[in-house]
C-alpha cells in the first residue's frame, strides 16, 4: 500500500476512534490523556500537592490532565519535541537522557518528588521489534532517573511495548521498587503491544552497573 494511502487510512481510523473523539470534545491535545485519567482512577497517585515530572510530554495530554488535579504542587514536562504552553506546567525542550537535562530537572524541583511519568516512545523505524526495544530502553533509563529523584513512597509510571525487553524491565523494576504492576488501560489500543508499568515505593536507587 502506498504511503499516503496508509496515512489516509490511519486518519480515518483515528476519526472513528472513541477516545480520539472524546479528546477533541474535552479539549485534550491527545487521546493519551484518557490513559492517564484511567490509570490515575485505578492507582490514585496524582494529588493536589504532587510534584510531578512528565517525560515525553508533547503534545501535552498527560500534562494537561495532571494540571487539572495539581493545584498546589509542581509539574515539569520534558520532550525533544516542542510543546505549546499549558497553564501551570513548566517545560524543558530537550532530550531527557542528557546529563544537563537531569541537572535542570533536579534544580527545578530542589526536593525529591512524588511522581515520574514516562509516556516516551522511540521514533518509529518500520522495524516493530527494534522500535519496541528502543522504547523499552527509554523506560529503563527513565526508571534509573526516577529511582534517584523520587521520594521513598514515590510513583514511577512508564510506557513500554511488550517484547524482548520486558523481562529486563520487570527484573529491574522489582529490584528497585516495592510494588510493581503491569497495566494496560482500556484506552490503549487492543492491537498495540503498548503496556504500562506502575511502580511504587523505592527499595534502592540503581544504575545499570550495580545490577
Ligand atoms: C506518545 S508521545 C507522548 C504523548 C503525551 N503523553 C501526551 O499525552 O500528549 C511520546 C513522546 O516521547 C517523546 N520522546 C521520545 N524520546 C524522548 C527523549 N529521549 N526525551 C524526551 N522526549 C522523548 C517524543 O518526542 C514524543 O513526543
Features:
alpha/beta, Rossmann fold, 211 residues, binds S-adenosylmethionine
Structural features, described:
The protein contains 7 helices and 7 strands, in the order αααβαββαβαβαββ. With 211 residues, the chain is α/β, with parallel strands linked by helices. It has a single domain, classed as 3-Layer(aba) Sandwich (Rossmann fold). Helix 3 packs across helix 4 and helix 6 packs parallel to helix 7. It is globular, with a radius of gyration of 17 Å. The structure holds S-adenosylmethionine. The site of S-adenosylmethionine has 22 residues, from helix 4.
Quick recap:
This protein is α/β, with parallel strands linked by helices and 211 residues long. It has a single domain, classed as Vaccinia Virus protein VP39 (Rossmann fold), CATH 3.40.50.150.
Low-confidence spans: pLDDT under 50, at least 5 residues? Answer: none
Spatial shape: globular
Radius of gyration: 17 Å
What is the fold-level CATH name, i.e. the topology?
Rossmann fold
CATH class: Alpha Beta
Q: How many helices in DSSP terms?
A: 7
Estimated share of beta-strand residues: 15-25%
Q: What is the succession of H and E elements?
A: HHHEHEEHEHEHEE
Strand order of the largest sheet: 3-2-1-4-5-7-6
Helix-strand layout with pairing:
Layout: H1 3-16, H2 18-25, H3 33-43, E1 51-55, H4 61-69, E2 74-78, E3 90-92, H5 99-109, E4 113-118, H6 128-149, E5 150-161, H7 166-176, E6 177-183, E7 194-202
Parallel strand pairs: 1-2, 1-4, 2-3, 4-5
Antiparallel strand pairs: 5-7, 6-7
Helix pairs in contact: 3-4, 6-7
The site of S-adenosylmethionine has 22 residues, from helix 4.
Amino acid at each position: 500500500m502506498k504511503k499516503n494511502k496508509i496515512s489516509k487510512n490511519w486518519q480515518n481510523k483515528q476519526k472513528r476512534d472513541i477516545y480520539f473523539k472524546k479528546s477533541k470534545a474535552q479539549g485534550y491535545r491527545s487521546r493519551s490523556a484518557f490513559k492517564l485519567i484511567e490509570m490515575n482512577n485505578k492507582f490514585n497517585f496524582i494529588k493536589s500537592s504532587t510534584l510531578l515530572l512528565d517525560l515525553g510530554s508533547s503534545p501535552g495530554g498527560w500534562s494537561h490532565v495532571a494540571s487539572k488535579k495539581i493545584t498546589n504542587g509542581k509539574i515539569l514536562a520534558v520532550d525533544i519535541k516542542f510543546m505549546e504552553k499549558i497553564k501551570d506546567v513548566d517545560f524543558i525542550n530537550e532530550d531527557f537522557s542528557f546529563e544537563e537535562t537531569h541537572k535542570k530537572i533536579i534544580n527545578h524541583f530542589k526536593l525529591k518528588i512524588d511522581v515520574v511519568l514516562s509516556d516516551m516512545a522511540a521514533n518509529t523505524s518500520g522495524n516493530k521489534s527494534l522500535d519496541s526495544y528502543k522504547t523499552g530502553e527509554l523506560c529503563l533509563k527513565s526508571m534509573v532517573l526516577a529511582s534517584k529523584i523520587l521520594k521513598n513512597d514515590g510513583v514511577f509510571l512508564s510506557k513500554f511495548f511488550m517484547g524482548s525487553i520486558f523481562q529486563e524491565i520487570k527484573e529491574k523494576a522489582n529490584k528497585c521498587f516495592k510494588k510493581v504492576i503491569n497495566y494496560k488501560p482500556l484506552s490503549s489500543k487492543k492491537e498495540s503491544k503498548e503496556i504500562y508499568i506502575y511502580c511504587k515505593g523505592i527499595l534502592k536507587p540503581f544504575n545499570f552497573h550495580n545490577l
